[in-house]
């Protein structure tokens, strides 16, 4: 197995892990936090969970396209989109969770950094697909 497929598999597993965490935290927020936190704090958690799930799918999609895309992305392309999805999940979602659970407003200042990471991840993913010189082929 090549390093390329190992990295792609790791990216997919990372996306699956964050999707799992998203469902877990969403269920916990809906069933376990209703009586503990304010409606505003609950809405912050729900926003974080929603963004975590969408960008978990982004990670999964990127890993699958890297591995099974048949040249849709050049092998030499960096893994920047995957890193940016990861940083976005950590900074955006993590800061919203911290803001909701700990209540320190300073965490709200970190959230936009994660949002920029999300945007940059999608743009860099798109650039890699557009910039690929190879024709896509299907793996058999």
Sum this structure up briefly.
The chain is mainly alpha-helical and 140 residues long. It has helices at residues 3-32, 39-68, 80-102, 111-131.
Terminal-residue CA separation: 16 Å
Q: Given the helix and strand composition, which structural class is it?
A: mainly alpha
Number of strands: 0
Number of helices: 4
**Rough outline:** elongated
N-to-C SSE string, H for helix and E for strand: HHHH
Note the main sheet.
Answer: none
Radius of gyration: 17 Å
Number of structural units classed as domains: 1
- Give the percentage of residues in beta strands: under 5%
Approximate helicity band: over 70%
Spans of at least 5 consecutive residues with low confidence: none
Polypeptide structure, described:
The protein is mostly helical and 140 residues long. The protein has one domain (3-131). Helices cover 74% and strands 0% of the residues. The protein contains four helices and no strands. Helix 1 (3-32) runs antiparallel to helix 2 (39-68), helix 2 packs antiparallel against helix 3 (80-102) and helix 3 (80-102) runs antiparallel to helix 4. The longest helix is centred in the N-terminal third of the chain and has 30 residues, at 3-32.
Indicate the topology.
Layout: H1 3-32, H2 39-68, H3 80-102, H4 111-131
Which tags fit this structure?
mainly alpha; 4 helices; 74% helix; elongated
């Amino acid at each position: 197995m090549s390093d390329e497929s190992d990295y792609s598999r790791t990216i997919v597993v990372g996306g699956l892990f964050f999707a799992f965490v998203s469902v877990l935290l969403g269920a916990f927020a809906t069933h376990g936090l209703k009586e503990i936190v304010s409606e505003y704090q609950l809405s912050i958690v729900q926003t974080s969970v929603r963004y975590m799930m969408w960008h978990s799918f982004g990670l999964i999609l990127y890993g699958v396209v890297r591995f099974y895309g048949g040249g849709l992305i050049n092998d030499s392309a960096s893994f920047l989109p995957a890193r940016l999805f990861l940083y976005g999940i950590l900074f955006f979602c993590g800061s919203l969770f911290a803001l909701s659970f700990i209540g320190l407003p300073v965490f709200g200042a970190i959230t936009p950094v994660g949002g920029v990471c999300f945007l940059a991840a999608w743009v860099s993913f798109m650039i890699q697909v557009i910039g690929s010189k190879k024709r896509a082929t299907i793996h058999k």
